[in-house]
Amino acid sequence: MTIPTPRIHDMKGVYSLIISNKKDQEIPIGARGPIYFKKGYWIYVGSAQGTGSTNLKNRLQRHFRKDKKIHWHIDHLLIADVELIEAIWAGTDENCECVIAAYLGESDLFQWGPIGFGAGDCRTSCKSHLFLYKRSKDVIATLEGVFENLGLIPRKYSDLV
Question: How many CB atoms lie within 10 A of CB 109?
Answer without folding.
Answer: 17
